[in-house]
Amino acid sequence: MKDLTVVLMSGGMDSTVCAGIALEKGFEVCALHVHYGQRTEKKESASFLQVCEFYGIQKRLDIDISHLSRIGGSSLTDKNMTISTANLEHHGIPTSYVPFRNANLLSIAVSWAEVLGTHSIFIGAVEEDGSGYPDCRRVFFDAFQKMITTGTKPGTDICIETPILHMKKSDIVKEGIRLRAPLHLTWSCYAENDIACGVCDSCALRLRGFSLAGIEDPIEYKQRPNYR
Questions:
Q1: How many CA atoms lie within 13 A of 66 on its CB side?
Q2: Rounded Cα gap, residues 131 and 119, in angstroms
Q3: How far is CA 94 from CA 25, 37, 192, in A?
Q4: What is the number of other CB atoms lying within 10 angstroms of the CB of residue 158?
Q5: Predicted confidence band at 154 (pLDDT cuts at 50, 70, 90)?
Q6: CA-CA-CA-CA torsion for 74, 87, 172, 38, nearest 10 degrees?
Q7: Residue 130 and residue 164: Cα distance in Å, rounded?
Q8: Which residue, 179, 221, 172, 207, is CA-closest to 54?
Q9: CA end-to-end distance (rounded Å), the chain
Q10: Of residues 164, 203, 170, 176, the one with CA closest to residue 17
């Protein structure tokens, strides 16, 4: 019988590759999708389900914490804020940062993992992708790991796995190809639910990653700038 692991899966490329890594390691994946009031939840949810079907993942949990959109503070959740056009040279905290989002997601994942009796949680966080997100850094995950150890019952022993944290986006694309991950089913756009915009930060990072990997991105874009 395979060991279980919880994988946070948004429907995006990074978490899809992360799930592929967990599967390759021999785990049975328990897929956790979280709706936090993001603009593209409809498309992300559809992608999540399609990716789960592709991988044959049966254990799935969809959680709604859309109160984060009521809190606001992010262009992903607050429609009164404009989603910034991509600037890959910018190193400050972008408007797309959802305050303390990964802590919320991990807290839910830890709760489920404790109930399931799993000893690991996979999250597809990427430091390059964060480009200023404080909750996408190694130091954040190390601190959260200490909180898990302190705040769960004795013997729980849940470890956060971040297998692509230090990868460049181009390396994630290559890893996805190696794993035969369904990159064509994934969604990265911050702004649109039908055709990816091609000009938000997430689209730009994805397009640049595919370009540097020398591979054509299989999804459709309204605009497809050449990011280098």
A1: 9
A2: 29
A3: 34, 18, 18
A4: 21
A5: very high
A6: 20
A7: 12
A8: 179
A9: 45
A10: 176
What is the rounded average pLDDT of the residues 181-208? 97
Neighbouring C-beta atoms of residue 27, cutoff 10 Å: 20
What would the DSSP string read from start to end of 147-164?
HHHHHS-TT---EEE-TT
Domains annotated on the chain, with CATH = 4-213 (3.40.50.620)
Name the residue with tokens 């939840």. Answer: 41
Instruction: Return d(Cα 60, Cα 30) in angstroms, integer.
Output: 6
CA dist 175 and 181 (Å) reads 8
Rounded to whole angstroms, how far apart are CA atoms 60 and 54?
13
Give 66's contacts (C-beta < 8 A, 6+ positions apart). 35, 36, 37
* Joined tokens for residue 56: 């044959």
What residues contact 141, with CB distance under 8 A and at least 6 apart?
123, 125, 160, 162, 165
Sheet holding 28-35, edge to edge: 59-64, 28-35, 4-8, 120-122, 159-161
Q: Are 108 and 65 in contact (CB under 8 A)?
A: yes
Does the global pTM surpass 0.85? Answer: yes
pLDDT tens digits, one per residue of 97-111: 999 999 999 999 999
Within 10 Å of residue 34's Cβ, how many Cβ atoms?
23
Angle at 134 between CA 74 and CA 121, to 5 degrees: 100
